[in-house]
Design brief:
two-stranded antiparallel ribbon, about 5% strand, mainly alpha, about 675 residues, globular
């Protein structure tokens, strides 16, 4: 009786909600729910919410239909029915009519409810994609789903990550990469270490920066998902550290103790980002953002190299005077310039040596792989022959002790930093509860910086034209930084490390094999045919970096200008393949008929092509200006401006729809 009342309610309600068009023939399963003796029209109406869109239609409409069905004719909606209230037969007829009407309405309602189910209000019922099928930058919809997907993608390849360095003739390339990247990572560590010491009154220094880079590299080589990425000190991190140090000084709080809490907050934020798949937000970063960031880092290295050479002429005021010291200063500046430039030219010559016909293939391969290392050794030896000229050399610490000293004494502090401070040792107040929570604010900015540095650098490494086979693991990499690297740096008083773009790209390129080929326009293009994707080079580089602390007597013989030549080499070799760099050169070609026939040149008109280049170059100029602002409170805006680049890229073309069509943007930013 209750079933019949419910049927009547459903019929009277659905009559107003459903369309009055004639219904298709009703399809009913030949066997309705085996084992369910109480199956009724109530179950059928409820089943309309979860059955496929083809339920209630002919089997021919559903190619995946496996169950045998039979067609049951049904009257049209709204057809008059006679319900007899008298007698037993009347009750049976009435019941069958009610059941038939309800089945008919549920048949018509299947499309109605299916539409609801497929709408945004019923999306939760949609089956989620298996974790093993997730792309690296795809939201999983599950807690830690991205991390689990990264593990499923990378763990089966873990053994090959170690063995591939020694198989297939890769041993020479990997050892050459270790030697090259050792010097490429040592010099920035020493340079940034000196900058940290000056900015923090020796709270941090060279020894801490080298240990931080080496320790981060060791952890990252074993646990990361993309071991081609190199961690190290960066310019934005230096700016954040200077700002935080000045905040601690103004509030008279122990800087190193406060950094522990900053590290813990930053670690928490980074772990949450990894567990909730927020790295997937980076899929909004197109080639527009990637190339601005890559070009910027290359410019910083190139400008830094020339700055080192120019300082030789500005450091000593007597270079052009009549003072007796002037000839010696001029000789130092001239020799330093020659050493730096010839280091660069020799490394570039060695890089192109395999294309020449001299020597045997093995010799050409050796020269190409070890070209940078040979250049460093050659010109360091030449400088040693002119050691009376006194060209500035690398500054290395003599002892492996912390740079900071205890308050009022000349003794070095201990390696472990007490998070609650030590007024006797530092001379400043210990962090209070309010200040501990306040450190979450600068820690959030630091976490954003790490998020952008890490993901943008990994995006550049994993670009399609690099032809990598093993894929990335964005969520896993951030999780490793959050769990291990940031807390260790905080508790031991070490500078924080982030993905270093140029060092990472140099690492990648040192493991590449390229071949020249002709495109459809007859032009010669260089394509990547193979990359040695392994962890051995990452481990070897940072083991040597830590070992360098005991080799200071040897490393102090390397001139700074020679390493400046290596920086120039790294910055210049990172530019090929950057379309912004290629499009800037088009400004110098006045005849459009002589443009290189790149794909985007043939697909986009000249005016929108050059305007897009101007738009992208303007964003690059703003970013570079932010890195040169002397006020650290302004320079910390740098990573947040990078975060807004995808939004700028999306909004500006919409504001000028007559300038760029969708086809233009697709060709320029694919």
């Amino acid at each position: 009786h209750r079933t019949q009342i419910f049927d009547r309610v459903c019929r009277s309600t659905l009559t107003f909600a459903l369309p009055t068009a004639p219904a298709p023939p009703f399809v009913e399963p030949a066997t309705a729910y085996p084992g369910d003796d109480n199956y009724s029209s109530v179950n059928h109406v409820a089943d309309a919410l979860v059955t496929p869109a083809t339920a209630g239609h002919d089997a021919d409409c559903d190619p995946f239909e496996e169950e045998s069905v039979r067609a049951v004719p049904a009257p049209a909606v709204g057809e008059a029915r006679v319900e007899d209230d008298g007698g037993e037969a009347g009750e049976a007829g009435k019941s069958s009519t009610v059941l038939g009407d309800t089945a008919n309405m549920s048949r018509n309602s299947s499309g109605f409810f299916q539409g609801i189910k497929s709408s945004k209000y019923m999306r939760s019922s949609k089956a989620k994609k298996p974790i093993s099928e997730l792309a690296p930058l795809e939201f999983s919809g599950r807690f830690a789903g991205g991390v689990r997907a990264d593990l499923l993608r990378r763990v089966p390849l873990y053994v090959s990550d170690w063995t591939e360095a020694f198989t297939g003739g890769n041993c020479m390339k990997t050892t050459a990469s270790i030697c090259f990247l050792f010097f490429a990572c040592l010099s920035p560590a020493v340079t940034f270490g000196a900058a940290f010491a000056d900015a923090t009154d020796n709270q941090l220094g060279v020894i801490e920066t080298i240990i931080s880079s080496g320790m981060s590299g060791l952890i990252y080589s074993f646990l990361s998902g993309q071991p081609l990425c190199i961690l190290g000190a960066t310019g934005p991190e230096l700016a954040f550290t200077v700002v935080f140090y000045e905040i601690c000084q103004s509030m008279e709080v122990d800087f190193l103790a406060a950094r522990v809490w900053q590290a813990l907050w930053c670690s928490l934020f980074t772990i949450l980002v990894a567990l909730f798949d927020l790295s997937a937000c980076m899929k909004v970063c197109t080639r527009f953002t990637e190339e601005i960031f890559s070009f910027l880092i290359s410019i910083i290295f190139i400008v830094g190299a020339f700055t080192t050479l120019i300082k030789l002429y500005l450091a000593d005021p007597d270079v052009e005077g009549d003072d007796p010291a002037a000839p010696a200063n001029r000789a130092k500046a001239f020799l330093g310039t020659l050493l730096g430039l010839f280091t660069y030219f020799t490394a570039m010559w060695c890089r192109a040596f395999p294309k020449r016909n001299e020597a045997t293939p093995l010799v050409r391969k050796l020269v190409a792989n070890y070209g940078v290392t040979l250049s460093i050794l050659l010109y360091s030896g030449i400088n040693y022959g002119f050691r009376d000229v006194d060209v500035p050399c690398l500054d290395m610490p003599d002892e492996i002790v912390p740079t900071a000293t205890l308050n009022g004494t000349g003794e070095s502090r201990g390696w472990f930093v007490n998070p609650f401070g030590d007024e006797t040792a530092s001379g400043y107040d210990t962090p209070g509860v309010g200040f501990i929570f306040f450190t979450a604010v600068p820690a959030l900015g630091l976490a954003v910086l790490g998020y952008l540095d890490q993901n943008l650098t990994t995006l550049l490494i994993n670009r399609k034209d690099h032809n990598l086979k093993k894929g990335g693991a964005y969520h896993l990499d951030l999780l490793v930084c959050g769990i291990f690297i940031y807390p260790i740096c905080g508790f031991f008083g070490l500078p924080f490390t982030h993905a270093a773009t140029v060092r990472s790209m140099s690492h990648l390129m040192s493991l590449m094999t390229r071949e020249d080929s002709k495109n459809e326009h007859g032009q010669t293009v260089s394509k990547v045919t193979n990359v040695v994707e392994q962890r051995v080079t990452h481990l070897g580089i940072h083991c040597l970096l830590l070992a360098a602390l005991g080799l200071s007597a040897v490393l102090t013989k390397i001139p700074k200008v020679v390493l400046a030549g290596v920086f120039l080499y790294m910055g210049v070799t990172a530019l090929p393949g950057v379309q912004l760099y290629e499009r800037l050169w088009l400004w110098l070609i006045w005849d459009p008929k002589k443009y290189p026939q790149y794909d985007y040149v043939t697909q986009v008109a000249r005016k929108p092509l050059h305007l897009f280049t101007l738009f992208q170059f303007s964003c690059l100029a703003v970013l570079y200006a932010l890195t040169k602002v002397p006020n650290p409170y302004i320079s910390v805006i740098f990573p947040f401006f990078i975060a807004f680049l995808p939004l700028i890229r999306k909004l500006v073309p919409k504001c000028f729809p007559s300038v760029w069509s969708k086809e233009d943007l697709k060709a320029l930013d694919k």
